[in-house]
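Consider the following input, taken from an annotated entry for PTS system enzyme IIA component (Candidatus Criblamydia sequanensis CRIB-18).
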Amino acid sequence: MDLQIKDVAELLNVTENAIKDWVTAGQIPYYRIDSDFRFSRIEIEDWVIRSQKNDFHLRNVDDEAKGRGNRQFSLYRAIHKGGVLHSIPGKSKEEVIRNAMAIIAKDLALDKDILTDLLLDRENLQPTAIGSGIGLPHTREAFIKNSFDSVYVVFPERAISDYGALDGKPVHSLFFLFAASDKNHLHLLAKIAHFCAQQHLKQLIEKKPNKISLLEEIKQWESHINT
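Applying the prediction step yields:
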């Protein structure tokens, strides 16, 4: 889907001038149609995931908006609403996703086969591994029209070697994202990638913590970045 500058600014919660600055500096993927700038929805999403630092949502806004934005896109609330699943069986990425959806789809009151197909469709466009053994499965766009976001952290029974990660590492942890809007979708992608880029938090994830332990770490981390 083609996006204009105003659309990207709205999704990323920044000013249109910020987008123009990033275009001028070559910091964001774009293309031209005649003299107009256009953006691919999937390329913007991948840029959000791959940037790792993911501090775009803190730029070009005042201090009040920074805090409000971080509270609005709360990873703590999303995982609290979702959950943490251990020892999900499967010898391949598809099998693990399918087996996870057999559980998660019930919580979301959705068809597990349709949900699996949507997730695999996104994976076929480009694998969602973000490095260091972590995957971030999600659909192309937000489609769950609820008033809440859900993130499910899934630890497969065995690491997935065929995930297609750029660093070539097997994926041992999956963050499944189901957001209530496209804006929430992109900002939570950013937050998860940012969270997983922190060395001590990557080490925590490798230990496959339970929900209580993981939420406690996320609560402390988010309280720090919200200040």
